Structures are given as C-alpha cells and as structure tokens.
Amino acid sequence: MSLINVTNIKIGNNVCSIKLPLIFQIEFECLEDLKHDVEWKVIYITSDGSGYVNSTSNSEGNTDNSVDNMMEQEKEYLVSNNKGEIILDAVCLGPLYKGILEFEFRVNPPNFSRLRPESVLGMQAILISGNYCDQEFIRIGYYTNNVYDEESLVENPPDLPILDKIVRCIIDQPRVTRFPIKWDNDNLIDFEGNNLNYVINSDTDSNTTEDNVDTNTTDTMDGNTTEDNVDTNTTDTVDTNTTEDTVEYTEEVRKRRYEEI
Q1: Residue 87 class from Cβ within 10 Å (0-12 exposed, 13-18 middle, 19+ buried)?
Q2: Angle at Cα 126 formed by Cα 141 and Cα 66, nearest 5°?
C-alpha cells in the first residue's frame, strides 16, 4: 500500500477575495519511517489552461534586485513540466516517521496580471500534489469558481477584470487520484499494496512468449499456404487428367460395341 495516506484536508479562507492566500490544512498518516523528504505542491490551472502569458515578468511592485533574484530562483524551482499548470508553491517535509501528521499549507494566489483576461473568471482547478523522490503518489483536485461579487459586474463584465471585485469559491468536493510509485524498498507498490514489479515482469515474460508464438505461427502459416498451393495445383492436374482418361476410355468401348453389333 501507499506509505502516505491523506486522511483529511480542511480548506481555509473560503469564500474570499481571489487576492487572498490559499490555505489548506492537510492531515496524513505515515505508515513507515521514510528515508527521504515528501514534497507537497499546490498547482493552479486556469479555465482555458493557458497558464501564464509572460513567464519572465515579475509581480507588480517588486523593485528590489535581491527580491527579484529570489523570485527568479523560485520560478525555476517551481517550473511545471505540464503546459498550463502554475505551481504556486512547494514544500518539503522530512524526515517523516511513522504516525499521523498535520501541517498548514498557505500559498499565495497566482499573479493574475500575468494571466489572459478571459481566463481569470469562471471555473478553475486547484491541485494538491504529493511526491516522493520525484514520483507523484497522490493528486487531490478541487474546482474553484471566480465570480464578481456585484450583480451589475456579473451581467456586464468589463474587458479587463477588476480583481478587487472578484471572489473565489472552492468547491469542497475533492477528486483524488493515486499513483503507484517506488518507496524505500525499491518495489513499485500501488495504493492497495500490490507489488507491481512482479506484475510487470510477468506481463513482460508473457508478452515475450506470445511474440515468439506469434512469430512461429506466422512462419507456420506461410509454410501451410505454400503447401496448400502446391497440393491444390497437383490435385487439380491429377483430377483433370483422370477425367480425360475416363472420357477417352468410355468412347473407345462404345465404338467397339457398335462395331460388334
């Protein structure tokens, strides 16, 4: 089974302005002492899946060079391999020992000035990802809806979003996806405790055997096809000759009988 089981997540700061931090109280159970850190990420996905438009621009108001350098280093660390995913923050916890643990994950919202104006409003997605040794073992997804808090703006939204007037509502109905990974024993274990290394090796051996059978079968089928063609041609020739001989013999017998009469 998975050595980390998330038992509960409480969403804080809901419903609120989209400019306020995202807060998650995460409780999980560690079934064994772990040798390495567990990395947790909070990922934001916009309604159109486009992500940040300009990946080089900084947040507004940052003029200190040291702050800019720290932000650039953070961007490199929080880069996502999937286009459209915005990694808001990541934290490593460790060493972890067997037992029940809980921590608060507070992250800043995305920089909405770097998003497409049409992707700020509407349904978005927030993902909490658990990783061990660069392997994702769990992904918990929430839908969130960004809407104006004034009816007049809802009916006639401006071309450029007014961030101060938009509220965020996270729908507390998470969708959980678990992935089999290799833990400290180097075995690929799924969340039910099945050793997938054995399954993969068995499938590989089975596929190898089937490939050999298929190859042999193909060769055999080619041989049978050739033999069938030879047999058919031979049979046709024999049948034809036999029929002609029979016809000629019958005519001769008829002639002799006619002459005798």
Answers
A1: buried
A2: 140
Residue found by looking up tokens 């007049």 in the block: 152
Residue 185's pLDDT is 77
Q: Please state which CATH number belongs to domain 4-194.
A: 2.60.40.1490
Q: Which residues of 202-219 are buried (b: 16+ CB within 10 A; e: fewer)?
A: eeeeeeeeeeeeeeeeee
pLDDT at residue 190, rounded to an integer: 58
Do the strands 99-107 and 166-170 form a parallel or antiparallel pair, or are they unpaired?
unpaired
| Backbone dihedral angles phi then psi of residue 121, each to the nearest 5 degrees | -90, 160
**pLDDT of residue 34 exceeding 60:** yes
Instruction: Indicate the Cα dihedral angle 82, 83, 85, 91, nearest 10°.
Output: 50
Average the pLDDT over 157-162 and give the result: 94
Rounded CA separation 121/163 (Å): 10
How many Å apart are CA 48 and CA 219, to the nearest integer? 53
Dihedral angle sign, alpha carbons of residues 88, 136, 176, 45: positive
* Secondary structure letter of residue 195 according to DSSP: B
Tokens for 259, please give them.
Answer: 């002459």
Residue ranges covered by each domain of the chain: 4-194, 195-261
pLDDT attached to residue 141: 97
Rounded to whole angstroms, the Cα distance separating 137 from 117 reads 34
Indicate whether this model's pTM tops 0.70: no
Instruction: State the pLDDT confidence band at 209, using cuts at 50, 70 and 90.
Output: very low
